[in-house]
Structures are given as structure tokens and as C-alpha cells.
Amino acid sequence: MVSLEQLPEIRTELFIGGETCTADDTLRVIDPADGVSVVGYAAAASAKQATSAVAAADRAFPAWAARTPQERAALLTAALAPLADDRSATAEVLTRENGKIRMESFIDSVVFEHRFNLAVGLTDELQRVTHLPAPPYRTEISYLPLGVVTIIVPFNWPLAILAASLPQALLAGNTVVVKPPPTAPLATVRTVQLVAQSLPPGVLNVVTGTDAEIGAALIQDDRVKKVCFTGSPTGGKRIMSMAAESLTRVALELGGNDPAIVLADADLGAEAMRRLFAGAFDSTGQICMATKRLYVHRSRYDEVVEGLAGLLSATRLGHGLDEGVTMGPLHSRRQLEYVRELAAQARGSGAEVREFGQAVDGADISRGNFLRPSLVLDPSDDARVVVEEQFGPTLPILPFDDEDDAVARANHTWSGLCSSVWTADLDRAAALASRLRTGYTFVNAHGAAHLDERAPFGGFNHSGMGREMGIEGVREFMDTKAVGFPV
């Protein structure tokens, strides 16, 4: 078992204009596995320091934008070199501050680098010019970078999520200020600084601090041309409202209430069940694109319930650094209480709630934010656990008899991030996918592990606006320019 008292405290500073900067105050980071152990401290920037980060990015913009995409791509690729040697240490820090298991933290760091490489692969498309022949004019349409971009990162998969927009913004010729999550900033600061120190000063900056102190400086400064935010719909509305004061553009990747539809002919063998399980319960359910509602044809309902129950029974809870642990704690106490509340409301309205899993040998899960995973069986469609995004390890399973009814129920929601269709008939899957009002539909899988990261990603409805990754993700950070020539 990991001895939390023997682990070193981690300290991170600000990185502005190519230099490390201290702050007068700090953010204290607590391990969610026990709620008391201090993981470390991150510098808490003042509003003045946040403004200086924006100024540094603004100064660096003209020279960075003037480079060719190929020059920028070469510099970004070279800047990734230090990440591999630091990956294990970064994963340990991320697990301690976030709560998720070490393997997931390691993958988070790997995906960060992978998404940079995918973005660099799009380099030659950036200079593409569309020509409209005369008459009446000979016109050229091209794209130019925006300027300074602020990227605000969530706690759950901070490195992977950051890399869905950071390399695209930099490759397009923008300069960036990154704001890591205040409750889990340490691994993100380490990683961003490793990349930033190999780039020209001011191209990439990282500022940690409280939303109340530095939020306005990073969003409403006239030099900030775009704000990218990943988080809850409530947070997205707040960002959008603040950005409106300066007419700053926003890209919002918000919450999801993802439906999965299991048809009567679905393959429910062992491997399929593992994919179904992982799509809902990876990262203790704290993934925006996790399955949040599972609609199952009545003829397969018991089979799905028993299959998931068997996998959940093998869940072992404990600190994410300990051997044998398959599920860590929730990140916050508030989220723990919220998920409990949703399950209790469903139980009180007549649904059966089955809880599973146990502590790994020697682990004390009475401390911290541990919650045994659960299935909520046949709740009403208006139960809160169905209507709201639980963002935790509980899954409502709802039977259906008619495909049209299942699609209508799946679409009857505020969200529109991801969905999935499970069937042996791929033509049937395509037909249903075209009717689901989500930005991405998986077939016979669900979740980030099965995402084609070459494709654009984003949501419908209250799940956000704008797209990440792919060439569409790069164009999010560019303005369209037309030049007309007389003939």
C-alpha cells in the first residue's frame, strides 16, 4: 500500500513569457483518496500576473504567426521531447491529485503527445487557398490565426483534453495561455512548462489560480481573441456571459448525458460486455463522453444487467497508485454527495439500485471520496439519474420494446455529446446513428478509448459549440480571409 505521508509534496509555479514566476499565494492540492493528505501547492496568480501572461502571449504573436506552418510544426515536435522521460512522474502526480488509477493517468499523458502528433500531421492543409475564378473577380480565400487564445482545462482528463485544442491553436499560429484546474493543477503545469520552455518566449504560458481572481483577466482582456473551455454547462454559460462583454469568441465542450442503445441482435459476448462496462465506469464515471443512460431491448435486458453486475462485482476500490485497484475515488466530496443523492432519489421512486465492488486488501475506503459503483434498474424516464448527468459510477438501465421509442427517449435530453448503437447489423447501426442528435456516435463501443481522433469532436444542444481535433479543430483558431482582384 502507498504510504501517503512518505510521498513528496509537489510545488509548481507560473510560466509567463518564457520564465518561471512565483506568486504571493498558493493553491493547496488535496488527495481525494483520503481528503486530508497534501499532494502539493500550485502558485495562485494575481489578476495582474494573469494580465501579464496575456501581454506576453500578445507580444509573441506577430513573430509566431509569421512563421510558416511547417516551421511551427517542427518546433512543436521538438518541444515534445522531454515528455517521455517525465511520463511516469507526471502520472503519479496526476493520480494523487485527481484520484484516478495510475494506468489512466499514464494514458492521459500519452494521449497528450499523440494528439500533438495528429495535429502536426495536418500542417500542409493550413496554407490551402481556395480560388474563385473570374468573372466578376479573381478571388482567393485563405485562413489567418486569431491571436491570443485562453484554454481552460477540467480536472478529469486534463492533459488529453488540453491536447484537443492546444496543438491546433499553436499550429495555426496563435499564442496561448493555459489555465489548469485549480483542484488538480500540478501535472498539467509540469507538462505545459516542459513544452513551453522549448518554444519562443510567450508562445505558451501557464497560469494557475482561482477563477474569481484571474478569470476576468484571461477571458475579458481585449487582447484575448478566443476562449476554449471544457466543463459543465453551467460553467460554459458563465464563460460565455463573461466573454460577451468583450465579444470574445468561445469554444465550449460541455457535459454529456450520453445514451447507449442495445438492440435485440447485439453481440453481448465477454469482449462486448467489457466495452460496455468501460464506456460507463472508466475514471469512476467522471468522463463527459461516458455512457450515462443505457437503453436495452427488453429481450436482452436481464443479460445486460447480469453481465455488468459480474464485471462490477470484481471492482476493487482504493488509492489509484496501489496495485490491484481498478477504481479510485471521485474527485470531490460534492460530487460524491450528488451521485448518492441521484441514486437515493431513484430508489425512493421505486427503482432497484444494486451496489457492487469492495476495497482492495488493506484499503480504507471510509475516508476520502470513495463510492461503490451501482446500477439503477428500470427507473422512470423523469428520474434525476436519467435526466441529469451523474458524472459518477452509477448507471441507469432502461428497457425498451420499439426502436423508434428508444431513439425518441435517447434524444429527449438537454445534451448531445456522444451516443452509441450496439447491433450486429452495421447498416442498421448507421441508420439509427443518423437519427441520434449527438456530435459523435460509436458503434458497438462507447468512450474515449474508441474515439477516432482524426475526426472533429464536439456536441449538439447544451453539450457545447465548436469542434476539436481534425482540420475543423484547427480552423476553430483561424479567421477566414478573402482577397478579390479586379479583372
TrEMBL record:
UniProt domain Aldehyde dehydrogenase: residue ranges: 25-483
UniProt keyword list: Oxidoreductase
SUPFAM superfamilies for this protein: ALDH-like (SSF53720)
Annotated InterPro entries: Ald_DH/histidinol_DH, Ald_DH_C, Ald_DH_CS_CYS, Ald_DH_CS_GLU, Ald_DH_N, Aldehyde_DH_dom
Residues the record marks as active site: 253
Keyword hit for Oxidoreductase: yes
Pfam family, one: Aldedh
Top-level taxon in the UniProt lineage: Bacteria
Cited PANTHER family: ALDEHYDE DEHYDROGENASE-RELATED
Family under the similarity heading: Belongs to the aldehyde dehydrogenase family.
Protein name listed in UniProt: Aldehyde dehydrogenase family protein
Source organism of the structure: Plantactinospora alkalitolerans
